[in-house]
Every structure is written in C-alpha cells, then in structure tokens.
Fold this sequence. Notes:
- This protein is an alpha/beta fold.
- It has helices at 43-50, 74-80, 97-105, 112-115, 121-133, 149-161, 179-192, 205-211, 229-233, 236-241, and strands spanning 3-14, 17-28, 32-36, 58-63, 67-68, 82-85, 167-171, 197-201, 214-219, 222-227.
- The protein is built from 10 helices and 10 strands.
- The protein is globular, with a radius of gyration of 18 Å.
- Bound molecules: adenosine-5'-triphosphate (ATP).
- The site of adenosine-5'-triphosphate has 10 residues, from helix 1.
- One of its GO terms (cellular component) is plasma membrane.
- Keywords: ATP-binding, Nucleotide-binding, Transport.
Amino acid sequence: MEAILQIDNLTVSFDGFKAVNSVNTEIAQGEIRFFIGPNGAGKTTLLDAICGRVKPVDGQVLFNGKLDVTRYAEHEIVNIGIGRKFQVPSVFTSLTVEENMELAVVKDRSLYASLFAGMSKAQQACNDDILNTIGLYEKRRRGAAALSHGEKQWLEIGMLLAQQPKLMLLDEPVAGMGRSETEKTGELLKKICQDCTVVVVEHDMQFVRDFATRVTVLHEGAVLDEGSVFDVQNNPKVIDVYLGRGGEQDA
Ligand SMILES: Nc1ncnc2c1ncn2[C@@H]1O[C@H](COP(=O)(O)OP(=O)(O)OP(=O)(O)O)[C@@H](O)[C@H]1O
C-alpha cells in the first residue's frame, strides 16, 4: 500500500535536547498506526512536528510522497489534509452538537456569524453522515455540555472529519474512557480509516492490541521497534523500557 506519510530523519530539538531524534517511518494509507512508549519518549512532540506546531531542526515529513509538510504553517497543514486532535476535548460546550459540527466546516472562524445564516444542503448532508458515523445523530440538538466525556471526544473527531482530512492525528483519544467507550472509539477508528489514515499516540495497551494495524515504539526520542502488536510486545527491549514497567498504567 502506498505511503501517505513518510518521515525521514526527523529531529526536534528544545534548547539542544533532542525530544525527537532521527525518526524514520512510513505510514501506509488506511493504517491505524499507534505510537507507544514511556512518558517523555517524544510521541506528542512527533505529532506536533507532523501538524506544524513545532518545527524540526532536521529531516522531512512527506505527505502523499511529495509535499514536505515541515515547510508549511499549522493552518496550511490543516488545509493540506492533516487533522489533529489534542488530549483535552475542545468542543464548544455552549453550542449544540450540530452547531459544533457546523462550526467545524468553516475554516475561517470569522465567518461564524454568516455560517448560521445557512449551510449548503450538501454540507448539511455530509455533517449528518458524520453525526451518524460518530453515533451522535440522535443527540444533534442537545447541548454539547450534556455529552459524556467519550461523546465529547467523538464529537471532536467528527469535527475533524468535517474538514475531510486524509490523515488524522489523535493524542490519547481514549484517556479517561471506560472499556465500553474505548471499544466504541476503536470501532469508530476502523470506520474512519477506510477514507482517512489514523495515527494514534496511546498508553492503553488493550486498545493498542485490539485496533493497531502497526505499532511504532519510541524511546528517548528514537524508534526502538516497529511492527505488529505481537512482535513489539514480545521484543525484550520494549518490555524492558516500557511494557514491563507498567507503562500502560502511566497515562
Ligand atoms: N516545549 C518544550 N520545551 C522543552 N522541552 C519539551 C517541550 N515539549 C516537550 N519537551 C520535552 O520533550 C520530551 C518529549 O516530550 P513528549 O511530550 O513528546 O513525550 P511523550 O512521549 O508524548 O510523553 P507522555 O507519554 O508523557 O505524553 C520530554 O522530555 C519533554 O519534557
């Protein structure tokens, strides 16, 4: 399968400290790729570098084999087709579920007022499809404040989908969820990855085992191992620095 993202020799430095150190990996279209590793391994910083939040001192990140996204600003990278979800949900709790979705369609939020004057039928239909996908269609008229923690996370994923990304970056999407919501989130990612490749930073190893197509283990900014869940969880080095230390409980 063709790589949607090719990361070459990526290095991010904070005052000389290499939080990401010469990382190389390729992510194929349609994957649900998990990045795991101990606290401080550089996982979030790697996502930050892909979405333009931090700039690397070395290396490149090729999107669709040609565009080096490290040369673009954060908002331009969103327009290129890379969406990022942060750990804490950032839905607008004073709006309804549906209004949050409407707001997400508009990239320039100064258009907010005119947005509510009316969305096109096509946009409305697209948002309704997404609301069905994330399981919130029936709750579309409810205030977002009344949603459970898991539902807020799904709404935020829906808001990302409204921008029709080709690659979605999720930072600990199931943190704070129970098993049932975690399971539903995994099923949601399986649906999403048919059109949009998914990259997840995660500590919940049960979630990783159940839904990863491939796993990359980071340690001290560098790739320690990469492969199937089975392979990486049986690698003695991975057990030593992460899994054997109860890393999955650290989240
Ligand atoms: N803006 C920053 N300035 C200085 N150091 C930073 C900055 N951001 C991250 N770091 C450092 O870079 C290292 C990697 O941090 P990062 O948050 O990427 O790790 P992580 O693998 O996501 O950890 P966790 O699992 O705890 O979220 C850590 O040592 C962290 O303290």
